[in-house]
Amino acid sequence: DTRKPHNFPPGPAWLPVLGSALAVNKLRKKTGYLYQATGELAKEYGPVVGLRVGKDRQVVLCGYEGIKEMLTREEFDGRPQGPFYETRTWGVRRGVLLTDEDFWQEQRRFVLRHLKEFGFGRRTMSDLVEQEAEQLVQAFRQLKFTGTCVACMGMIDAFGVYVLNTLWSMLAGIRYSHTDSELKKLQGLLTELFANIDMVGCLFSQFPVLRFLAPELSGYKQFIYIHQKLWEFLKAELDKHKQTFKPDELRDFMDAYLKMLSSEQKKSSFSESQLLAICMDMFMAGSETTTKSLGFCFLNLLLYPEVQQRAQAEIDAVVGRDRLPTLNDRPNMPYMEATVLEAVRVFMGKTFSIPHRALKDTELQGYNIPKDTMVICNFSGTLMDKEFWGDPEVFRPDRFIDAEGKVVIPEQYTPFGYGKHRCMGETLAKSNVFLFTASLLQNFNFSIPPGTSPPSTDAIDGVTPSPKPFKALVTLRPLPS
Ligand code: HEM
To answer: Which CATH superfamily groups domain 21-476?
Structure first.
């Protein structure tokens, strides 16, 4: 249908079959990013843009007002439906990332409760993150730095291992060495998946008929293959857990879920497939996001040596050099805390939220939104808003620190979303970025290798943006005399 619904948000014309896909693609080619393509449309049509891409009716919110309203109203708490969202879990929507209504609420509640309680055995989340930070520093030390350049992708891969370890430890009690082949397999699958889709889906989700007409070209075959591999990987671990499961000795999330599966209070939303889907979702939502935040953090620490020095001065004053920082130091380290907030801001300012779906016919910012419309936030509208931040392109942790030296987080700071679908891993993500960064800065200096030009802040577009490969000169920090 090429006719727009009555009072639908303005946007480019809808052509038969393609809808506004060509207009969006043209702008994407021109700007290099999907988020900038929709940003360009917002300049022309206003902060609420209406699109149709293949079968999907989409509304992209590019301003604070619309973003805040949508994220906090329950009518928009749906997640998109369709082949893309079902195929990933073999025909039925499962997991917690892309599900909605009662099913999602029950499962989300269970996961959140158990993430809080980690907890399991005697190991808390802090223990896990602190252990990984220590391993990370050791790995850097083993490189025997006497002024060594590391390629950024190498650096990001290095972060990736330790981030995955915190997640996988909580879910299944497993941590890998950074040379492990199982881990490389898992990492490779996730990276491949992320390179093949967008936040708003992909070619075959917007044009489902392509699954049959062009299974390879549309990415459908590849999508199935990667998910099969990922599923097998998780299933093998679940089988191991089932063989060694003891209901009175819960080791990790998998055990807690298995216990629930055999309990009398089990609701119908609980199943083994759902457990695997939750693990898959945690990896999808938690690994690349955290790793890339760290990537942008270190990129900017190279570009802003004064930020690095101030963070190091704070680390020296609060922690000293005789022990590694811990999460207990966090409340006493506002500058480091603000650096974490700033790193996540510049990262998420280049992308979208996870799509929502209108659960019924409703309105938003004065426009009509028919049931089942996909609604998505362009976070550059909040996180990179010039009027609000003044100098959004600058990496300046001070923007989060008030006159008394306390950390303040303004409403426009939306990188983890708001409302009922708010990120479930915010605490873990911030703890990781905080502790990994503080531990490395305590021990090493990071700078632009002499004779090379400063790294670009441009990103490689994808589901989430990555920094372009860059090199850093890493040197051991001398101990204070
Ligand atoms: C810097 C890192 C991260 C950022 C910027 C981030 C951001 C977000 C955003 C924007 C959403 C969508 C909110 C919405 O749809 O309204 C979200 C949802 C979610 N995140 Fe994160 N996230 C991060 C790390 C993590 C980690 C480490 C985990 C796992 C432990 C995680 C698990 C989830 C889950 C499960 C959801 C879906 C929640 C739901 O729909 O109910 N995230 N995240």
So the answer is: Cytochrome P450 (1.10.630.10)
